[in-house]
Amino acid sequence: MATCSKHPEKVIRTFQGSSIKDPSELSENVARRVFTFSQQRTKWRKLEDNFEVGDLFTQQTTDSSIRFCETKQKLSQTCCKLESCTMETPKVWVPDPVSGYILGKIIDIKAETVSVQILNSNEVLTVPYESTYAAEELDDKDVDDNCGLMHLNEATLLNNIRLRYNRDQIYTYVANILIAVNPYFEIKNLYSSETISRYQGKSLGVLPPHVFAIADKAFRDMRALKESQSIIVSGESGAGKTESTKYILRYLCESWGCQAGPIEQRILDANPVLEAFGNAKTMRNNNSSRFGKFIEIHFSNKFSVVGGFISHYLLEKSRICSQSRGERNYHIFYQLCAGAPLELKKKLSLSSPDKFQYLSKGCTQYFTSQETEKLLNKDSISSDQCQKGSLHDPMLDDIRNFRTLDKAFKYG
Ligand SMILES: Nc1ncnc2c1ncn2[C@@H]1O[C@H](COP(=O)(O)OP(=O)(O)OP(=O)(O)O)[C@@H](O)[C@H]1O
Ligand SMILES: [Mg+2]
């Protein structure tokens, strides 16, 4: 990072990565967390695994477990009553290997098991009592905040997030924790400048859940409480942590960085540099960060952005000399081979990736767009690239990214 103010008034920190090395770094107010979650790569039923970090969530699940146990007892009593009155039986969620949980109606209750008639099917499942979960009255109604669910349990929580995801509402709260599901496509206007202005100064919950709302709350708390704030972004690989962090940074810089001039641009420019040297294509994510990072955005006493500081840890050093098949070394090597001007290539004796011992064992194809593919020099193309062509990802382009990196270095 080229610039950082030595005596910032207050800072907003974001921690990004699956683990935080030194918890004492979290000494100041840990205000909020963002969980990112990749629906495409993990079955819904595995969502539970991603929540371990959230104290608040744990607290709420404990409360809700108690509530749920009580509910179960009531459910059993109600079932007996309902049976005798021949009224409609209650709906429950039962585990399913494909969907996580499916909805059914209790048709029989034994000492240890219940028989459930699956909705819209003739199937009847007999499952242990403990593996059923009480369902909400309306199964297609979603809530912005999981705490608003009548029955908060694993199945209703997953169903709420799934309903929202199917409506392109990728964000859901659990109080002041935000759960984000990676949509893997651009949702129109979700991160536009108009959306940024809409979220400015609005309390959490006034507008639909959004990563901007979390950034705004951090800013407002910093201003009101005069204390530094932290945002933790965590989740599995490919869940969208890096993208969420970039949106938080953009929100803070666009909203309160206008007077900062080049500093705002420098903070944003640090990302392409970090990603070139610290991100690589893996089997799970074409732009996988192989390091954790800790970003500070510094604010003046007038609460405008005056600087930033980024520290990083856990760089996967082994990737430099060996990569698995289908994976690549750090982006910088391919960016140089594909995008560097001829003069620089000559000076560094650069040719195609398969000519280098440290690149040849992994994937040697470049990421390009249709336009930049035409700019590739014959000498820079590996035999694999010749046969299979380029890799495509809207977020990655080795030629374009080299230019951005070059510009960012000149700026600093
Ligand atoms: N909010 C979003 N909208 C659209 N696409 C997204 C969003 N978040 C992530 N993606 C897509 O998912 C890909 C992976 O996201 P990202 O690199 O942020 O994952 P990550 O959690 O940082 O993974 P890793 O731990 O491997 O670094 C991105 O390159 C992008 O294509
Ligand atoms: Mg990442």
TrEMBL record:
GO terms for biological process: actin filament organization; actin filament-based movement; animal organ development; system development; tissue development. Keywords: Actin-binding, ATP-binding, Motor protein, Myosin, Nucleotide-binding. GO terms for cellular component: endocytic vesicle; myosin complex; plasma membrane. Residues 87-137 form the Myosin N-terminal SH3-like domain. It holds the Pfam family Myosin_N. InterPro entries: Kinesin_motor_dom_sf, Myosin_head_motor_dom-like, Myosin_S1_N, P-loop_NTPase, SH3_Myosin. PROSITE patterns: MYOSIN_MOTOR, SH3_LIKE. The keyword Oxidoreductase does not apply. The keyword Transit peptide does not apply. Residues 141-412 form the Myosin motor domain. ATP binds at residues 235-242. One of its GO terms (molecular function) is microfilament motor activity. Belongs to the TRAFAC class myosin-kinesin ATPase superfamily. Myosin family. PANTHER family: MYOSIN, UNCONVENTIONAL MYOSIN-VI. This is Unconventional myosin-VI. It comes from Caerostris extrusa. The lineage of its organism: Eukaryota, Metazoa, Ecdysozoa, Arthropoda, Chelicerata.
